[in-house]
Amino acid sequence: MKPARYRFATLLLSSALIASFGCEDEDASTKPTGDDAAIGSDSVDGGMRDGNVPISDAASVDVDAKVSVDAGENDAAPPTASCTPVTSDFTSSIEGFTQKGVTTFEHRASGGNPGGLLYIDTSDLELSNVYAGPKFLGDQTRHIGGTLRFDGNALAVGGGAWTKASEDYGWVRITSPLGIVERDLVPGDMGPPLMTWTTYSIPLTPDAWGVSAGKLREILSNVTELRICVEALFGAEVQALDNVQLTCPVAVEDE
Q1: Which domain covers residue 138, as residue numbers?
Q2: 3-class DSSP state for residue 187?
Q3: Are 94 and 213 contained in the same domain?
Q4: Residue 170 backbone dihedrals phi, psi, to 5 degrees
Q5: Of the candidate ranges 32-36, 59-63, 79-83, 126-130, the one whose mean pLDDT is the lowest
Q6: N or C terminus: which one in the chain shows less Cβ crowding within 10 Å?
Q7: Domain boundary, last residue among 73, 100, 118
């Protein structure tokens, strides 16, 4: 039989080896690997980040912030569920539209594209403009990347072509305290065809309006006036307007 001292020393050695192997296994099971290692090196600070914010919550904030920065760097903000088209289809009223230089300005319940329309008699020889209702004003930046569009129809004509540049049919102007952008959606001397509905549109993009992305965003952040010129002829004419709209940007699916 081995001496007691030998048995005691053997027992101590065995305990030390077991403890050593146990620590190595524990370390191996808790070491971060792969992506976890990268996150741990930057994020772990006693299980918390940013004061009392748990690690998992801080990661969500970082992701959300990155999405916001990327959206700001693009010309067009990505479409969101909060963006819905702004539309006046004149189904039952003039929907807050106003005018200047128009003889008769009223809602008609039929003849539109389809349904109701905005009836505009411009025969008084003054320059005739219509101004969009309140829902087209204010912050419209969510529509960047979408379009501005309207339907036009000449119901009656009797004069000669109105040829004054920047004051003829289809000239659209968007005004804000930070600037103005304007474009001619109907180039040439004439307005829409007689008794035919025609859709006119322009993208709400920097290139289409000839300004920088930042400037377009500034202007659309606080629209105070959206004006459409409806003067096509010098003399008697009656114009109809329908489906004035700001559309939303189209979602682009990942390939």
Answers
A1: 86-246
A2: coil
A3: yes
A4: 90, 0
A5: 59-63
A6: C
A7: 73
Confirm whether 252 is domain-assigned.
no
- 96-117 burial, b at 16+ Cβ within 10 Å, e below that, comes to ebebebbeebebbeebbbeebb
Distance, in Å, from the CA atom of 63 to the CA atom of 244, rounded to the nearest integer, reads 38
- Report the predicted TM-score, pTM, of the whole model to 2 decimal places: 0.68
Can you point out the beta strands (E) in the chain?
48-49, 53-54, 86-88, 98-100, 104-108, 117-121, 129-131, 147-157, 160-161, 171-176, 179-184, 198-203, 225-229, 233-234, 237-246
- Domain of residue 157, CATH code: 2.60.120.260
Domain boundary among 29, 46, 73: 73
Do 117 and 29 fall into the same domain?
A: no
Alpha helices in the chain (DSSP H): 4-30, 34-43, 55-73, 206-209, 213-220
Give the count of beta carbons closer than 10 Å to the beta carbon of residue 250: 10
Which residue in this structure is represented by tokens 């010309």? 75
- CA dist., res. 244 & res. 224, Å (int): 17
Burial class (CB in 10 A: 0-12, 13-18, 19+), 209: buried
Please check whether residue 79 lies inside any domain of the structure.
no
Structural domain contains residue 141: yes
* Residues whose CB falls within 8 Å of the CB of residue 176, separated by 6 or more in sequence, listed in order: 218, 219, 220, 221, 222, 223, 224
Residue corresponding to tokens 């529509």:
143
**Considering its fold, how many domains does the chain have in total?**
2
Condensed to tens digits (0 to 9), the pLDDT of residues 21-72 reads 444 444 444 434 444 433 333 333 333 333 333 323 332 222 232 222 233 3
